[in-house]
Structure formats: C-alpha cells, structure tokens
C-alpha cells in the first residue's frame, strides 16, 4: 500500500504522481485481463477522476470501456446532467439501468414503507452485469471512506451470486492482480483504493477537472434529521416538526437526494474545498444517512452485491 504524506493543504505532486501511476497500472491490467469490463460512473468526484485516469492509460486511443450507471431515480438533477455531458465529451458508451425498471421486471422488490432504494441497487446492478456479460466492474471506491471498504482487495472477487466474502479474497502480492473468473463470476476493481478524499480533490485541482456544482457552496433549503442537514425534496418530504432553513451548503459525497447530507460551507472553489477538507475531523461517509443505524450497514450491502 502507498503511504500518503500530507502537508497542510493539497496532496504533494509526488504523492499524486505515485497514485496516478498505480491507478493507470491497475486499469491497464484489468483491460488486458478482462474480456468485457465496464466502468461504474455516477457523475461523482471519484468516478470523474477514474475517467481521467482511463483516458491517460490508453491515450491516444478512443475511450476503451463503456460506462454503466445504476439509477435509483432519486438523484440530484445537477449530477445527472453532468453524467450525460461527461460521457458525451468522452464519446463513451453510457448504459443506464434504473431501479424503477428492475422493480417492474420483478428483479428488485421494494420493502413496504421503505422509501430509500439503496438496497434495490444491488439486484439492479447484478442484473445489469449479467445482461451485459461484464466480467469486471471498475469503480471509484476508496479504502479511507468506510471500514468495510478498507477490507477490499483492489481486484475484489465476486461469486456467481454477485456476493462478496472478505475471507475468500485473493492475495495481491507484489502488485500482481488476478482477474480470472468462471462464467457468471466477476471482479470489482478499485484503482483508487489507496487514495484519500484529499488526494481526489488535489487531483481534480491538478488536472483542472470539472465536477458537478453541488460540490461547491450554494444556497439550498435543508432540514435537520439524524443530526444532519438533508435537502428538502419531493420524494421524502420533511415531517411537520422538522423546520427547514435556506443555508449555504455543499456536499462531500453524493448519493440519493433523500440521504445525502449537506455541510454548511462557504467553499466555492477547489482550493477552498481542499483547505476545508484538510481541517475536517470526520469522514465524508459520515454525511450519508444511508450508512447510519448499523456498524455493518455497508458490509451487509456489499455482501448482497453492492458496489
């Protein structure tokens, strides 16, 4: 594992160069080994960096891998617009599989009274991988995000049921990766495993990458729930006793609009975001309401086939 040495602001150029070289090596390995890989692209900051790394890994060849988004239907409009725009800029094939369609087909089954569609993403993703016959799904998850993700290998093996078992993962000695799978199995590949949130934003600054506007300070109506500011929305309206306010906020990590926590912030540029993150004492996933309520919430979802 790479050691990231931080200064008081952005990650050093040397650190970013090492991380970039490692990620490019991983991307070349999976494209060489897999028969039909796909990139999971949500329009979020991590997958934005992933697309730039894939560009660099195979430049000047055309973008070599299709994009796949599992759309819950509970999205921020700004992110969906950015997703479509970026795919078009890269001239990359973008496949969107919706939870709504999976529900109609009986692939995903809603739980009565539960509005969140997080659990429904897993069967939708597994069906999409099977339909596309993808043997490798490349994602932007990082080990610093959450303790279950810290258990991941870079090439994370999934069985024919799409399930992840921490004790059945393959060793990755000397940067050697094994993508061999049988029919119906796949690997999830995480080239950004050794990156941190600060590394991501430093890379965005270094590469001058565009990101969705909600990552920067803007005025939005929010209300307090679970100890977090959540956006007012039409999908899960606030309760009568929950008072809303219009505040200058931004998001650190993007999920469904009903569970993405907002942080009060005046950071309106990449450099200001970097300075803010360098001073933060909480992880970005702590602003996601879907991770609350159980210490094993993420691990349980990963075992079911989640990203």
Topology:
Blueprint: H1 13-33, E1 37-40, H2 45-58, E2 67-71, H3 77-90, E3 94-98, H4 99-104, H5 118-132, E4 136-138, E5 155-158, E6 186-189, H6 197-207, E7 218-225, E8 228-231, E9 244-250, E10 263-264, H7 270-279, H8 297-303
Parallel strand pairs: 1-2, 1-4, 2-3, 4-6
Antiparallel strand pairs: 5-6, 7-8, 7-9, 9-10
Helix pairs in contact: 1-2, 2-6, 6-7
Structure write-up:
With 307 residues, this protein is an alpha/beta fold. Helix content is 32%, strand content 15%. Helix 3 links the parallel strand 2 (67-71) and strand 3. Residues 1-8 have low confidence and may be disordered.
User: How big is the Rg?
Assistant: 19 Å
CATH class of the largest domain: Alpha Beta
CATH superfamily of the largest domain: HUPs
Put simply, the count of helices is 8
Helix content: 25-40%
Identify the CATH architecture of the largest domain. Answer: 3-Layer(aba) Sandwich
User: What is the first-to-last residue Cα distance?
Assistant: 22 Å
Give a quick precis of the structure:
This protein has 307 residues and is of the alpha/beta class. It has 8 helices and 10 strands. The protein has helices spanning 13-33, 45-58, 77-90, 99-104, 118-132, 197-207, 270-279, 297-303; strands at residues 37-40, 67-71, 94-98, 136-138, 155-158, 186-189, 218-225, 228-231, 244-250, 263-264.
């Amino acid at each position: 594992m790479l050691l990231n040495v931080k200064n008081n602001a952005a990650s050093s150029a040397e650190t970013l160069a090492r991380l970039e070289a490692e990620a490019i090596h991983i991307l070349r390995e999976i494209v060489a080994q897999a028969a039909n890989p796909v990139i999971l692209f949500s329009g979020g900051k991590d997958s934005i960096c992933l697309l730039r790394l894939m560009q660099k890994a195979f430049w000047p060849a055309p973008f070599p891998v299709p994009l796949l988004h599992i759309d819950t239907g509970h999205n921020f409009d700004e992110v969906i617009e950015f997703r479509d725009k970026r795919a078009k800029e890269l001239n990359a094939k973008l496949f969107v599989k919706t939870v709504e369609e999976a529900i109609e087909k009986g692939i995903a089954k809603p739980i009565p009274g539960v509005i969140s569609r997080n659990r429904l993403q897993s069967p939708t993703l597994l069906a999409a991988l099977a339909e596309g016959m993808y043997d490798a799904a490349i994602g932007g998850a990082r080990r610093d995000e959450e303790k279950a993700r810290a258990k991941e290998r870079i090439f994370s093996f999934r069985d024919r049921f799409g399930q992840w078992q921490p004790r059945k993962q393959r060793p990755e000695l000397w940067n050697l990766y094994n993508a061999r799978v049988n029919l119906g199995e796949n690997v999830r590949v995480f080239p950004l495993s050794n990156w941190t949130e600060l590394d991501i934003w430093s890379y965005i600054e270094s590469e001058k990458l565009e990101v969705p506007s909600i990552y920067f300070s803007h005025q939005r109506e929010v209300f307090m729930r679970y100890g977090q500011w959540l956006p007012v929305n039409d999908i899960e309206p606030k309760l009568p006793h929950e008072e809303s306010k219009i505040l200058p906020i931004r998001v650190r990590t993007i999920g469904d609009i009903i569970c993405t926590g907002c942080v009060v912030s005046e950071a309106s540029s990449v450099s200001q975001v970097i300075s803010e993150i360098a001073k933060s004492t909480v992880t970005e996933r702590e602003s996601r309401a879907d991770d609350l309520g159980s210490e094993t919430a993420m691990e349980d979802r990963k075992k079911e086939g989640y990203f």
